[in-house]
Write the structure tokens for this entry.
Amino acid sequence: MRIARIRKDWPRLYPPEKKAGLTVIDLLQEVSDEERDALIGVWMKDGWRSWAGCHDWVRETTDRLLLPSRKKSCECVKFRC
């Protein structure tokens, strides 16, 4: 939410050519909570990997807008390619 208050115009990020293999529909079709929970982690990693071409821009932009006094760092990103 802090970023939304800081910056109003954003460049267009075009969807990756190779999309993630899983969709929200796949998650909703899982029969048990445990299976769905496990698949959510796979889905998040898959989505993050599919947007690999934008990772540097996202890291640099969030670092610049949210951590102006800290050295640029990617340590806060949980899912790396």
In short: The mean pLDDT is 78.
